[in-house]
């Protein structure tokens, strides 16, 4: 049994499918602070079986210990956490408490239960401002906001844990920019309030829920002047967790980028989304957003060598899958699932 923390969330629900499809039994722990349990009902419709669900907080060490014991958990994939960069500047202690303290409690429960295999969701944000590109795992770390620092501190903590006891099997996965949705259109990202990330915003403009996209700067040193990012399909990202888990059959600590190795600009994303949706996406060029870098993309070589993993899906597919999710679920998980228009 694999324990998935944050398994009701955007990435977690896709990892849940990857695990169930691969034949694993899954227990999900989530406090639903940024998700809806309906995601797991949708997972069941896709996979034909469901994970065990426990509504609990990772900071509740006793509850986590009970779940580890009761479910016979052998490994943990840890995605639970707060993830909004802007909010982390305003509420830093909530981020340290939730992410850092939460991981400490989780690890403590795991130690007590004798579960020593852990895959952790880190982020490319730990690199900070790129000193060179593409970003490989040896690039110096220097996160520039409290959210990023929580990921950095957790990484350091896990490295110390491994140094103190090399029976641990730890996989640190640094995600670049997750995007897209499951191809069924059943599960996807369901941001509460105003989305933080580019794809959900573009998609809401295409759907007419927002008037236009504000492009944060067109004066960067990039071919079209807008920022460049490494967008990775969430289904590819999910399969990376499976590869990491298989790799951790041996003790060790591994840190790997999960990215495509390609960069796409904000305007390329807008044009691709327009092409796959057939909708116009009005935009306006605004000021640069504080804290943004011009270009960020991964060197995914190590993940390929060490895990045998690489991404397979294109930007077109990310946009098409995101759009299908948007069309079928105009109100996210709070509404009903509409039929796939392409099938009717
Ligand atoms: P998400 O908010 O959709 O999922 C996180 C889940 O964790 C949610 O279901 C939330 O309810 C749950 N959660 C939060 N705090 C909890 C706690 N204390 N106890 C139990 N459950 C808790 O976010 P996501 O995009 O799926 O991100 C998953 C992980 O990946 C996060 O750790 C995030 O930092 C990391 N990550 C995300 C991105 C991204 O752009 N989406 C990029 C890099 C890394
Ligand atoms: C992408 C590009 C923006 C919105 C963030 C976190 C990072 C990681 C992934 C968790 C940039 C531009 C965006 C808009 C725009 N999350 N943009 N108008 O900033 O690369 O990374 O999510 O770990 O930590 O920082 O992603 O989707 O916000 O932005 O022009 O309304 O889109 O300037 O160039 P980012 P993003």
UniProtKB/TrEMBL annotation:
The keyword NAD applies. Residues 3-321 form the NAD(P)-binding domain. Its EC number is 5.1.3.2. It catalyses: UDP-alpha-D-glucose = UDP-alpha-D-galactose. GO terms for molecular function: UDP-glucose 4-epimerase activity. Keywords: Carbohydrate metabolism, Isomerase, NAD. CDD domains: UDP_G4E_1_SDR_e. Pathway: Carbohydrate metabolism; galactose metabolism. The keyword Cell membrane does not apply. Pfam families: GDP_Man_Dehyd (PF16363). Its cofactor is NAD(+). Signal peptide: none annotated. Transmembrane segments: none annotated. InterPro entries: NAD(P)-bd_dom, NAD(P)-bd_dom_sf, UDP_G4E. Belongs to the NAD(P)-dependent epimerase/dehydratase family. Homodimer. This is UDP-glucose 4-epimerase.
